[in-house]
Known about the structure:
Layout (H helix, E strand, L loop, with lengths): L2 H20 L16 E6 L2 E3 L4 E5 L5 E5 L8 H4 E5 L4 E2 L1 E4 L8 E6 L8 E6 L15 E7 L12 H18 L17 E3 H16 L5 H17 L10 E3 L15 E2 H17 L5 H16 L20 E2 L18 H9 L7 H8 L10 E2 L2 E2 L32 H18 L16 E4 L3 E4 L11 H5 L6 H14 L1 H4 E2 L2 E2 L3 E2 L4 E2 L5 H15 L2 H7 L2 H9 L8
Parallel strand pairs: 3-10
Antiparallel strand pairs: 1-2, 1-4, 4-8, 5-6, 5-9, 7-8, 9-10, 11-12, 13-14, 15-16, 17-18, 19-20, 21-22
Helix pairs in contact: 3-4, 3-14, 4-5, 4-6, 4-14, 5-7, 6-7, 8-16
Amino acid sequence: MSAKAYTGLLIMLYVLLCCSKNNDSTPPPEPPVPEVFHLNNITVDGQHASNGFKCKNVKTTPPIMLVFSAPVDMTTTATNIFIRDKNGATVPLTFNNPTPTDSNIVEVKVKNALQNISLYKLTVNTNLTSQKGTKLDAEANVNILTAIDSTDKFPRISDSALLDVVQKQTFKYFWDFAHPVSGMARERNTSGDVVTTGGTGFGVMATIAAANRSFVSRTDAVSQTQKIVSFLKTADSFHGAFPHWLNGATGKVQPFSDKDNGADLVETSFLMQGLLTARQYYNQSSTTETQLRKDIDSLWKAVDWSWFRKDVGSGPENVLYWHWSPNYNWDIGLRVSGWNEALMTYVLAASSPTHTVPKVVYDNGWAQNGNMRNGKTFLGYQLPLGPDWGGPLFFAHYSFLGINPNGLTDAYANYQTQTINHTLINNQYCISNAANYFGYSSQCWGLTASDDGRQGYLAHSPTNDNGTISPTAAVSSLPYAPNQSMAAIKFFYYTLGDKLWKDYGFVDAFNLEDAWFADSFLAIDQGPQVVMIENYRTGLLWNLFMSCPEIKTGMISLGFQSPRL
């Protein structure tokens, strides 16, 4: 190759080399991707959970597994993974890796067993750190509801003995909490001087059951009832009807609400139901019992039922009104219309020997000319009357403490069917548990009005259910569904007894979903339990009330038929 050719080749190679260098499109290396430290999975007692989830029915020593997207710096677990109870107290924990080869997993254990039927919160916060020093990208919280302790809290006894225990202990509410001046029942165990008219009527009936079972002597029962009656003779009343609440020391009205500071006809009905039952029971010829009967008659005959038809100048209406106030007259304007707890109001109004009302008032006002009928079927049970699903169970209790529904019919319903099917609908609703409330079962059921941990006081029913069970609902339904009610009584006493069973029987209500248990007792809930257990066992209060000659006459005048009339 000539020198000239060689030189040309070198120049060409140089040019190619330069072009190749100048046109290099290889991208620079990417910077390292930051680590994402994320909680991938939470398992509590075998239940997979996510942020905000509630794990229910959890063992008191639950295995807890946390799976992260990167290995965890275990020195940061103790200060950033914790469990607190509903009061904010921290539960002692231990942490470890279940396998040495997988440091993405943290196993959490409680050092001491959690409490049964209690709420806790598991928190994993964002200061938890990976082994590379990366903090967790988001906080996680999981609610934990621990399981029911199924062991018996009291020794097993016969069903009859258990009913004795429940009646006797529940009755103590009316004995121990009777107002020292008036003898009337306090509205609740924290009511001070506030006494309840309707609850006192229930208490008078409970006292009869107690005397009949020798929980108290007949002499003491008569004395206590006379104390109540003597007080009522001088207490505030309006056309013979009493207010919902009275001051138990002075006898003056204790307003129930802004305009409710006068007569309450329905509460008066429950009071008179009790007093008439007492008149029939205390039938001895002694001076004390004779005087008691005379005073009860005086109160009974003084109630002007017909006045509550609200005659404002154009003639009385064919309906009874619930309230009247000396300050607000008929402003509340609530008609006593069925179906609800107030059947007793119309029965007594029709039965009054002094101020009776005609059948048209019952048909138009109470039965709404037949519009109180239902006739639909719920969970396999046809409901003759009332709102869909039956409403709260006190509808089947308050008037039927005295009225015996067995074999009772009129133009609108068979009341034995009404009370039984209402109860069974309520029972089956809780068993089906469509809302998935913790604890509902064939043993844990009963929706009615009671205290409520969320709303203070609520009329619970299948259409107004937040997980709150009221023991009075199932206990007071014993005559209607004895097997279902007895199962509930045993569950409340033996299984939940450490939380429900107190000095005055079962507490007013509980909500297992919220791990809430009332500490209250209400006269209108304790009384029906004592009375309806007795009606189931002997029919005592039914027999007494239905033996009143005025009641027989009044119920027949309304078109009722029964073997007891």
